[in-house]
Predict the 3D structure of the following.
Amino acid sequence: MWDSVLVLLDIVIYTATLARRWAHLPAISIFLMTLGILCLVGLWHAALRTQRQVYQLFETGKFEKPEARSPMDTLLYVAAHMTDWGIFAAAVSVGACIEALAELSTSAVR
């Protein structure tokens, strides 16, 4: 859930940055910021799709819930945990890069 909020926040930062500084941003900066957002949304969508597929395996009974602290339980926990942290790190990085790129691009023009 918080991953989705961070991705949405990055989209808001991206949109606000473009709206605020469009006239001063070089085309390469706009391209790089857009590429960063598209990659982040793609990563988020892939993670969401993967989590849905795992959930469906449990829901349909094709996969039984593993016993607590079993190797399979640990594997599922670690995979979910790293997916969450990966999205978090990507969202924070993309947001910071958008702001930094916009600031550098517009300060170079002044």
In short: The mean pLDDT is 92.
